[in-house]
Amino acid sequence: MSAPRQLAVPHEVVDWSEATLVVAHPDDEVIFFSSIVKRVKRVLVCFGDNPLSPEIHERRRRALSEHPLRSMHWLDLPETGCVGTANWSKPVETKVGVRLVAGPRLRAVYAQSYHRLLDRLRDELAEATAVVTHNPWGEYGHEEHVQVCRVVRDLKPDLGFDLIHDDYCGTHNIKMALRYAGRLDELPGRFCTDMGIANEVSEAYKRNRCWTWFDGYRWPTHEGFLRLRDVPRTTSRTARLNVIGDCLPRRPTAPFVRLLAGLSRLRG
Question: Does the pLDDT of residue 3 top 70, yes or no?
C-alpha cells in the first residue's frame, strides 16, 4: 500500500481552474454548482442508469452529448433507486451514507454502490488537488448525494486533496445540516449563479426529457462554498446556507413526478 499523499493546505482563495467537481447525477452540475461549473478543470458525473426510470439512461446519454462543457466526464454507474427512503426527521449517518428505512435488498444495493464509487473515484481523484462535491446532508436530502459526499470524504485522508462543499440545504433535512453547524467554514466571497450556463444546460436536459428538477425553479442569486472542520469551533459563528425551499415552484417537473411514482410502485 502506498503512503498517503501529504494533505493539501486549505487556502482562503481556491484555484478553481485546478479543481475537480464531483456530482451524483447529470443536471446536479448546474442545479447546485452553476457559479463554478465553467471554472473547474473537470466535472465527474457519477450515476447514469436508474432502476425506477429505465428510459432515462439513453436520454441522459443524448443530453450529455449536447452538453456545452467539454470538461464533463460521465462515470455512468448505476443508481440505487433509494431516493426517498431515509427518515429525514431522524437521520442516522452510516459508513455508506445515511440509514435507509427500506428492506434488506435496497440497503444492500446502497452499500454496494458505496464500494463501487469508492473504487472508481479513488482512481479518478488520484491526482486531484481540490475537490468540490455535495454537502454531508445531501442538499435537500438526497440519499445518493449524501453517499457521494461520504465517499469523497473517506478518500480525502489518503489522497490529500482540499475538500469543498456547496451551501444548499432543504427544509425537511435541516436537522442533519444543523449537526454540522459548528464545523462549517464559509469560504470568503460568494459567486453569482451563472444563469447563462444554467439555462443552456437545463434546456439540453429538458429537450431530452431527463431534467429531474423543477420546472420554474428560481436559482438563488449567489452560491457559497464551505469547508468542513475536523473539530467544531468554539465560537458561535455560523455559515450561511442557501435554503432550496425558497426557490421552488409549486409544481414539480413531470420527470420528477414519474420518478416518485416509480418509487411508490417499487416500495409497494
Answer: no
